[in-house]
């Protein structure tokens, strides 16, 4: 997986996901708490409505009981007693008119009492007042009594009336109301009240009232619609299937208690029948239809404690409106989460670039180094960890390179030593064998020269040449023996400046003959510990090589200085430079490019042997601008490797 993806995943897992989950969880929790509050508020509202309706229905009954005691009605009781015997009371019309007048006035004050009737014992209507107007009493034929309405031949109803307890209001449905319901399709939401009228223990008739629901509407109109809820009241009536489930009051559909003509809607229409099913299971609770986005809180109560009728008071709320603030918060959370993901993406890309770039560079460096580019190092910079890595790489490369150089050097020394050893042995053997005859030749040549007569100049010259050549041969033999002997260096501390001058003096004669100038420069106070003579021999060999390579009138520069913890002595000339071929054989014993008689090819190999015994190095390179430079590097105390 790529670094960027890794970083992104980590950021998402460590921050965005838990934060989003947390905030969403907190929002969900707040919503649940809020919904509980909503349920409480609505429940309280519903209970208030129920309480007020119940109190109002109860007080209607109290008012009815009070109505029975007013003088206009008490004065009417004798009329009723007369009527009970089938006679017409002398003041019948006058008292009937007075009572009707009073009841009309009363209706003006208590509007819910829509129709007030005074019935005789057989339920014929003696007085009827509706909408503050009295229905006139009529004589239905000569024999008949002046009734406003005649009993409806409902023997069952009349029998029921006789059984009513005295002094108590009974809730019922008058036959007249039942007929009106049937005929007009009216909903007539409220039941009627009936109160027996008695005097001295004798039942004289009844006071009956049809209640209209203006005052209930009034209560409902003023009930608070918390959370923009809509109120509805449905009737559950197992005795009357036609009214079972009818909506008596409904903010949404417009049904009202006082308006019985409204086409009655049914509770089954509310939330697709869910409300009906819920009410059948529990008398209060909550129904939700997420699809329709509505919730209905409801409670059921008995408006008339002695009847089977019950009412369901419910308040429906818009779920979307309720959840709107939370939907807004959720949207904001998702938007923030989206933004965070975007930022995380940008950040991880940038971070991956910063972290990966040096790693990629480092990898390239490693590969190049492994492929043989030994000088390859990486630039150090950036973050601490990366910097450490880069420094480690460079350190490793340096160490490896140093180790390689040391190994090469050791190998070279080993080969050189082996070469020197084998060549040296051979040379030493030959040298010894030749040395004695050469000495003899020299002695004999001397003797012969002494014995020469005066004037034998030619023979004298020949003998002198013979001696010269013999001396040269013995010098070579001495060189070979020196070379073969490999004497270990004697250590002493000496000052470099004077030593350098002394050494140059040894080569001055040869230089002068070749018309080459020698120039020496030494930093003051330089000191060296080593074999003064052996090192001098090395420097002389290098000077001779330089002079031999130099054209006339050119300059050979010798310099001594301290550098890199070593003493560096260089001999530079303006000659033709090193030969192109056999560059690596220059240090081999007996390798020479000089004509026979001029060079034995031992100078450099002897020099190398001595310098390496001092723990130093000897190199030969071409100079920029022409010529060659030989460089001796010696550790300052020349503490040899042996
Ligand atoms: N300064 C120089 N410029 C050019 N070539 C050089 C220089 N020094 C050495 N060489 C080359 O290296 C060869 C080997 O040198 P080395 O000193 O070992 O032997 P030589 O000078 O030829 O003989 P010897 O020193 O024994 O008299 C030389 O023959 C020459 O080709
Ligand atoms: Mg030489």
Brief descriptors of the model:
642 residues, binds adenosine-5'-triphosphate, disordered C terminus, six-stranded antiparallel β-sheet, Beta-Lactamase, cell membrane, EC 2.7.13.3, 20 strands, binds magnesium ion, alpha+beta, membrane, Helix Hairpins, single chain, five-stranded antiparallel β-sheet
Protein topology:
Layout (H helix, E strand, L loop, with lengths): L2 H65 L3 H4 L2 H8 L7 H18 L3 E8 L4 E6 L2 E2 L3 E2 L6 E2 L7 H8 L7 E3 L2 H10 L7 E8 L2 E10 L2 H9 L7 E7 L10 E4 L23 H8 L2 E6 L4 E8 L8 E9 H52 L13 H67 L6 H29 L6 E4 H18 L3 E6 L4 E4 L1 H18 L5 E9 L2 E7 L30 H11 L3 E6 L5 E7 L8
Parallel strand pairs: 15-17
Antiparallel strand pairs: 1-2, 1-8, 2-3, 4-5, 6-7, 7-8, 9-10, 9-13, 11-12, 12-13, 14-16, 17-18, 18-20, 19-20
Magnesium ion binds next to helix 13.
Would you mind describing this structure in some detail?
With 642 residues, this protein is an alpha+beta fold. It has four domains: 159 residues, Beta-Lactamase, CATH 3.30.450; 108 residues, Beta-Lactamase; 102 residues, Helix Hairpins (Orthogonal Bundle); 155 residues, Histidine kinase-like ATPase, C-terminal domain (Heat Shock Protein 90, 2-Layer Sandwich). Helices cover 51% and strands 18% of the residues. It contains 14 helices and 20 strands. The strands form five sheets. The chain has a six-stranded antiparallel β-sheet with strand order 3-2-1-8-7-6. A hairpin with a 4-residue loop joins strand 11 and strand 12. Helix 10 runs antiparallel to helix 11 and helix 13 runs antiparallel to helix 14. The longest helix is centred in the middle third of the chain and has 67 residues. It starts with a helix and ends in an 8-residue tail after the last strand. The C terminus is likely disordered. The structure holds adenosine-5'-triphosphate and magnesium ion. The site of adenosine-5'-triphosphate (ATP) has 21 residues, from helix 13 and helix 14.
């Amino acid at each position: 997986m790529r670094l960027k993806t890794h970083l992104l995943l980590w950021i998402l897992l460590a921050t965005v996901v838990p934060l989003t989950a947390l905030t969403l969880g907190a929002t969900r929790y707040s919503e649940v708490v809020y919904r509980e509050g909503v349920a409480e508020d609505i429940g309280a509202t519903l209970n208030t409505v129920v309480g007020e309706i119940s109190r109002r229905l109860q007080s209607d009954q109290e008012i009815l009981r009070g109505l029975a005691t007013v003088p206009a009605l008490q004065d009417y009781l004798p009329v009723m007693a007369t009527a009970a015997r089938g006679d017409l009371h002398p003041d019948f019309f006058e008292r009937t008119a007075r009572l009707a007048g009073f009841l009309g006035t009363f209706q003006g004050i208590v509007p819910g009492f829509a129709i007030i009737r005074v019935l005789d014992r057989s339920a014929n209507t003696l007085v009827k007042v509706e909408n503050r107007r009295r229905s006139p009493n009529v004589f239905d034929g000569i024999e008949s009594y002046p009734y406003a309405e005649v009993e409806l031949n409902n023997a069952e109803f009349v029998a029921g009336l006789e059984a009513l307890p005295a002094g108590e209001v009974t809730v019922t449905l008058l036959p007249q109301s039942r007929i009106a319901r049937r005929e007009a399709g009216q909903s007539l939401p409220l039941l009627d009240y009936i109160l027996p009228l008695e005097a001295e223990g004798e039942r004289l008739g009844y006071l009956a009232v049809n209640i209209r629901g203006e005052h209930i509407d009034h209560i409902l109109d003023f009930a608070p619609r918390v959370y923009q809820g809509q109120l509805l009241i449905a009737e559950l009536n197992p005795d009357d299937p036609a009214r079972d489930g009818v909506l008596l009051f409904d903010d949404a559909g417009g049904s009202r208690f006082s308006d019985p003509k409204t086409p009655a809607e049914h509770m089954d229409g509310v939330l697709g029948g869910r409300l009906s099913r819920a009410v059948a299971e529990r008398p209060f609770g909550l129904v939700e239809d997420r699809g329709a986005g509505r919730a209905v809180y409801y409670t059921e109560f008995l408006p008339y404690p002695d009847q089977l009728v019950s009412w369901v008071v419910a308040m429906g709320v818009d779920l979307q409106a309720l959840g709107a603030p939370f939907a807004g918060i959720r949207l904001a959370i998702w938007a923030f989460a989206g933004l965070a993901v975007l930022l995380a993406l940008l950040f991880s890309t940038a971070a991956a670039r910063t972290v990966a770039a040096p790693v990629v560079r480092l990898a390239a460096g490693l590969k190049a180094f492994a492929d043989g580019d030994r000088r390859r190092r990486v630039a150090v910079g950036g973050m601490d960890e990366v910097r450490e890595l880069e420094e480690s790489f460079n350190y490793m490369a340096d160490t490896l390179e140093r180790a390689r150089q040391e190994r090469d050097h050791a190998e070279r020394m080993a080969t050189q030593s082996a070469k020197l050893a084998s060549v040296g042995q051979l040379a030493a053997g030959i040298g010894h064998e030749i040395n004695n005859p050469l000495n003899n030749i020299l002695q004999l040549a001397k003797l012969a020269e002494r014995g020469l007569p005066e004037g034998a100049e030619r023979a004298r010259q020949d003998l002198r040449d013979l001696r010269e050549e013999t001396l040269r041969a013995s010098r070579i033999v001495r060189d070979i023996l020196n070379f073969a002997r490999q004497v270990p260096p004697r250590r002493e501390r000496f000052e470099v400046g004077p030593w350098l001058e002394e050494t140059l003096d040894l080569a001055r004669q040869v230089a002068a003959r070749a018309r080459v100038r020698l120039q020496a420069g030494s930093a003051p106070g330089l000191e060296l510990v080593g074999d003064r003579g052996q090192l001098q021999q090395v420097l002389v060999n290098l000077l001779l090589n330089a002079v031999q390579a130099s054209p006339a009138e050119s300059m050979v520069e010798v310099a001594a200085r301290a550098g890199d913890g070593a003493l560096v002595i260089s001999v530079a000339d303006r000659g033709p430079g090193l030969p192109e071929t056999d560059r690596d054989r220059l240090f081999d014993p007996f390798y020479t490019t000089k004509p026979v008689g001029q060079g034995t090819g031992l100078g450099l190999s002897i020099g190398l042997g001595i310098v390496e015994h001092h723990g130093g190095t000897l190199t030969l390179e071409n100079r920029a601008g022409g010529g060659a430079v030989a460089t001796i590097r010696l550790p300052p105390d020349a503490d040899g490797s042996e």
